[in-house]
Amino acid sequence: MSDVISAGRVSRRQVLVWSGMLSLAGCAGTKKPSDAGRQVQINRVEQYLRTVHLNAVPFTQLWPDGATGMGQLTYSPGYLYLFYQDPPGTELKARGLHAVYKDGQNGSETSMGLAHNPLGLLMGNPIVLSGAVMVTDVRQQPGVLQISLARAANPSQGLVTLTFADSNNTLSLSDIHVTDERRRTLEVHLLQQG
């Protein structure tokens, strides 16, 4: 996904706030739950991803080269739509294991298969966090849950790390990190909880 997305603009302050929130894995106070607790958290995330319907949620994005962008995200099981205000007219539509990226600057469209792209890990309908999808890490701190996913058959194809606000036993997606096979990370931060 990071190969075809153009750069946009977001304020430096937003990026700094966002970067601080995204460093959960390295923060003091994060912990790995026990095996039983880990499975409980995996089940919660799986249930969330099977039932969530995010509609036009504002987001900021940081590309691997440090460029920024922003727009609105729509997600439901098996469907993702990113509409960018910056860069204007840019869109990414994904359904199942296929995505189309439209470059708002030159009008070109690029089709992509997601079977070997880490973004494809979020496109199952229903999402199943076992078998073909491997949970590589679960971390918690008060009010925050983070889970990382890879393909069981080939983890080197990439990693998706999801960060959730966790309040009153209710999850709300706040951040998505997609790291490709070349270790380049695309970061999406949702500005409103979904």
What does this protein structure show overall?
This protein is mainly beta and 194 residues long. The chain has a single domain, classed as Lipoprotein localisation LolA/LolB/LppX (outer membrane lipoprotein receptor (LolB), chain A), CATH 2.50.20. 14% of the residues lie in helices and 44% in strands. Strands 6-5-4-3-2-1-11-10-9-8-7 form an 11-stranded antiparallel sheet. The protein starts with 11 loop residues before the first helix and ends with a strand. Mean pLDDT is 86; it is low at 1-28. This is Outer-membrane lipoprotein carrier protein.
List the helices and strands and how they pair.
Layout: H1 12-21, H2 35-51, E1 54-62, E2 68-76, E3 79-86, E4 91-95, E5 98-102, E6 109-113, E7 133-141, E8 144-151, E9 158-167, E10 170-180, E11 185-190
Antiparallel strand pairs: 1-2, 1-11, 2-3, 3-4, 4-5, 5-6, 7-8, 8-9, 9-10, 10-11
Describe the largest sheet: 11 strands, antiparallel
Structural class: mainly beta
The CATH level-2 architecture is identified as Clam
Radius of gyration: 16 Å
| Helical content band | 10-25%
Using the coordinates shown, work out and report the CATH topology. Answer: outer membrane lipoprotein receptor (LolB), chain A
Strand neighbour order, sheet with most strands: 6-5-4-3-2-1-11-10-9-8-7
- Beta fraction of the residues? 35-45%
**Runs with pLDDT <50, length 5+?**
1-28
The DSSP helix count reads 2
CA(first)-CA(last) distance: 23 Å
Organism: Acetobacter thailandicus
Protein name: Outer-membrane lipoprotein carrier protein
